[in-house]
Structures are given as structure tokens and as C-alpha cells.
Amino acid sequence: MLLQGLPAEKERIIVPGPAGFMPPSAAQLGVALPPSGVGIAYGHHVPEDIAIAEIARQMLTKPNATIFPGPMVLWAWNEHAVEKAMAVLEIAAQIPNVLIIPMPDYRPKYPKVDPEEVINPNHPNLTIWGNKIEACIFVGVHCHYANLTLKMIRAGTNCCTAALCAEQGHEDAMLSVHDMDAAKLRKVAQIFKRVREQMGIKLPADGKNVRYTGLQSRVNGNETHINPLAALKPGAPPAGVHMPSEGQMPH
Amino acid sequence: MSNPLEPEVKTNPQGDPITSVEPEQKTNPQGDPITSAAPIKVSGGSKDLQEAAKKQRVVTPEYMFFEAPRKREFITGSEAAKEAVRRSNVDFSVAYPITPQSETMQLIGVLYGEGYVKEYYRGEEEYGVMSAIAGGSRAGVRCFTATAGPGTLRGIEPIASWPGHRLPAVAMFTCRVVNAPLAIQPDNIEISYLLNCGMIVFHAENQQDLFDFIMKGFIIGEKNDVTLPVGVACDGFFVTHARNYVDMQEKGIKLPPRQAWKGAVPVLDAENPPARLSRDAPVQKSNFMAYNIHAVWQQEVWAAVERSRRYIEQYMGGLCTPENVEGAEALIVASGSAAAQSREAIRLCKDQGVTVGFIKIRSLRPFPTKELRQLCAKAKLIVVPEFNYVGWLAKDVAAAIYGYSDAKIVAGPHVYGGMSMPVEMIVDEVIGGLTGKRSIAVPDSAIMGRDVNQAEVAHFMQNI
Prior knowledge:
The complex is a heterodimer. Chain A is 30% helix and 13% strand.
């Protein structure tokens, strides 16, 4: 059933945890993936814009809000991947003090993970705990690994999870919207801007609103923040690198 | 020094004279003889035997399944499988024939010769076949294989790993006896081993089902939110070797190719950074993974099975097909060849004035739990005939409707070890179940639900 607003608190199925030692998956709890134009909010189908606005509210109000970009927007697979990555930075530009912590691949880290610098689907709870993250967005992660990650975070942390998915969405996220191409990601950024302005939350005057992690700060001259829009002009690919055309590589 | 007057004798590397008059065997760099078929040359002409395959055009699944005109042919189940593969844009197929399971994999070899399947070879045995299918599917191509009985069980370890690796291959299981003493007759006990792997399992009643389920299996299994293997089972011989009418689309069209980069996991990719030689996260337990990675991995596989429901409804018209359920005095729930026998039993019951409804289960995983709860809510008697000893379908039916129906559930009649099922056996259970006459084919311990001795049911559930 499609609700026209966010579900009442007592009706919510998928909520920030810790949900317990071994909570059932959202699919086992009867949460289904919605059709195009419909998002998921706390286990219920709602119009997409309502879900996006709720993601914005969570990211603008919860401590240590973080964007977790996955391989499909971290690596320049094709021109559309670059365009999507730039759109993700436009979203980041609307969230004061946001962290950007990458999920560069899906391998367990050996011999030791640095959970404050990267997130990994095999132990994502460490990154949430280590940075005390209470709201986050996953974008550009292959669906299987996103689902593993979302399940573990719901089981073991109090983080409110959101997914911006290029495919059918994620029922294990508290908030999910799908069919995310570059244009739709830019639409998300616009809704974030509207919600931020409605809430009276201002951005820093110099535009430096993305907070560096410890390592990011050290490799950037001990700066503490960066303006994400300053990174919007990607450099040319290294000599000899062929950029595949659209449709040849991951979305 | 050799005598110039004597003819030179060729020797092998060990110094033995080569006396064979056979032409020299070409070998590959490893020294193995090259036996694969080169493109067949037709004497007296330059006809390209793969010309028709090259001219096949891609159509949408919706057009292929619902709009394309069909022509009826009278063919065996193995031929129906071959024709399904011909239209499914299959990249890779590995065979181990386990003769005489069926002709299916030989016929896929014919398709390879005709250019409809891009790669094909014979594996060492089923473990190797199923492992090779895993490799092909990981690499992003569309894979098909078929096996039966002991072959299924020999390959079950790699088969059981397919869902966790999220490999959307299609495997056909032409069920036959697996226990000793060996037999090659039908018995679908092997399905019970497949039900809990995490793969999608369809059970074909006849040749038409086999044709349709294989093609639709590729499309359903390759959906991003599913990305799972699909097993298409049928009861061997009854379906594979017997002929029946099959309505098929023209040979000149095929399904779109697999779009592996749209899958739920990245494909094996050694050409683009970051280079990967294997799927990223090893599925072995290690100290570098959270305690519950395996648990959520299994949850995710079964969540994907759940997600397949909407595609099964979209492309197959539902997980089960009810017929004349409303107002029926009794219901028969069956899958595979037992469904075909049940139809005839229902006709015989009607001759006796007894109205019997029918529910054919097409998808065993996911199982039509919600549908059965609704369809069986008012039923007084449910008969579940099966071609196996253990009654895996009856147990699933009973578990699904427990608390939702007070029907008496007859887990039988059963035939096994390669026997056929006389329809009169099913009729006896329906009439006996309605009149209270004691069955001679189904023990009391295999009757569940209303008016049942619970101690005997417990014995049934515990012992088989």
C-alpha cells in the first residue's frame, strides 16, 4: 500500500537499531521493493520525494552524517559514472559538516581495517561505531553488498541508513529511493537544498562543508574541511586510459 | 649411422617406431589432442551452417513470452529444452551427459555446432561441470546445463554455492532415482536436495512447461534484485523422452543477452581497475569479517528468492495455478508429472459425481505460501500425490497452511523408485478421504490435519 506521508512511529518496520543479535531481513518481514517513482520509508512505500525529504532531514540533523560512495561512483568506469559522482558531490554540498567515507571495493581488509577511513561490507558496523555515525547514505554500491551492509548496520548500530540505488532499491535501508541516474541524483540535491533552507540551516560562507576524516586531513595539509564543489571539475584521465562509452560497464 | 638404403622409420619420443597409418594428430600447446569441432565444411559448397544463428534477432522478453506468434510441434522434452536454449541467447554450456538421463546436453551440442550457443564442452564429471558453470556465470555470461539424479548429487556442492555467489545460471534437472540400487527411471527425490540451496526451483509438468520455464528462468534469475540461479526440474523420461505438443516461437528470435554489469554483484573483471581475479569478498569465514557476515549473506540470498515472486507472477502468471477450487469437495495439490496424473484423476472423480479442485505448484522456491493459505482456507480434504518416498511437497503444503486451514491433508499417494502412478491411486485417496474409507496406499501416519492421530503424524514427520 502506498502511504501519502511518512508512516506513524508505531507502524514503522525498519527503524534505526540496534535491532538485535540476528534480526530477520526486511524481506522476511514482508517489506517489498516498490515500483518506479515510489520510495521506501521505514518499511512502507511512500512517494519518492517524501522519502528523499526524510533522508535530507536525517542527514541534516543526526550526528556525524556520512555519505558512503561505492565503487560505481568512486571509479571512472564511464562518463556517466563521472557525472553521477559529481552529482553526489552536489548532494554533499548541501549537508554541513558531512563526512565522505569511501567503500572502494568489497574485499575484507587484510591484515587490519582502518574503519574510520573506509567502510567495508564485511564489517560495516566498525565504521559506524568508530565514527559514531547516526545517519548515512549509500550510493554506488552493488546491490548485494549494499544489502549485506544495510542488514549488519541495522542489526548492530543506531544509524539511520538511506540508499540511493541505481536499480530497484533496498528494503533493508530505513529510507530508499531508486532508479538513480545522474539527473535524479541532482534532483535529490535540489530537494536537500529545499529542506535545508526550510529548516533554516546555513552552509559555511566559504563553501567548505565536507569534513575530512583523520587521514583525509593529513594528506590534505591538515585542512579540516573542503568545498565539494571545488572537486566538480574532474581532470583528464591518465594517458592511455580509454573511457568506455555508456552501457559498456557498471551503471 | 642409418643405412641410406633403408627407408627412414619415424619414432616417438621414447624411440618406439611409429607404425600407425592414421594422420598426424594435432595437439594444443599442452600436448592434448585437439578434438573440438572446427566449423563444418560442406563439400561442394560454402554453406555456412551457422548462418541461421547469425541472423537471429533480439526481441524483448515481453514480446517473446506474450506476443510472438507460436507454432505447435510434437517433440520430446529434451527437444523442448533444446528449442528453449536456441531462443535464449545462451553464451556457455557445459555437458556431462550422464547417459541415459536425457538427450538434452547432446542436443545443446548440436546447437553449438549450429552457432546458437557460443561455447560448449564436455566436463570431467558433474562437479567439474557445475564448477565451470559457476566460473562462466561469474565472468558475466549466460550459462545453461542439465543433469539428473546421481549427477545432481555429485554436483550439489558447487550447485549449492551458486546462490551465495549470486550466479544466475539455469540448470535443468531431469529427475531420476538416486539411491542404490541404481535405476534410471523417474523419481523426484533429488528436488528435496535442491529446495534449501537458496536457488529458485521450478517444477515442469510437461514439455511445454519445460520450454517456457527455461526461457523465463533466465530472465527472472538475471533481474538485478534477484541475481540467483534457477533450477528447472522435471520428472525424467515422462517428460524428457516422451513427445507432446509444444507451442513455440519462431527460431529466428532470441532473448536479449545477459547484462551482467546490471547484476547485484560485479562480474569477474581482470581488465579494468581495480583488477579482480575472484569475487571480492571471500565466502570463507575469516578474522577479517564481522561475526554475522555469513548470516546476513544467507538472509540476502533468501531475500532475493522472495523478490523473485513478482517476476514469477509477471512472466509465469503465478507461482501456482488453481483450477476449480471454489466449491470443490476436495483439492489435489501437485507439481511435475503428478500434476498431469492428477488432471486425469479429477476427470475420473467427476465421472463419479465428486467435484475436485486442483492446484498446480509451478514454483517450489519461492513457495506459494500466501496463495495456498488463501486457496485452501475452506478445503476439507487435500490430497498431495508425489513421485518420491519422503513427501517433500506434502510437508511444504502442510507447513504453509498450518493454522490457516483445518483440512485433512493426505501425504500421498506416493510412487518411487521409477514407478508410474496409476490415476486410480489418486482417485482412491480422494474418495476414501471424503468417505472415511481406510486407505491401502497411504498409511495413517502420512495423513495430517483434521481428525488425525497426532502421535502418528509426529512419527511421520520425524521418520521421513
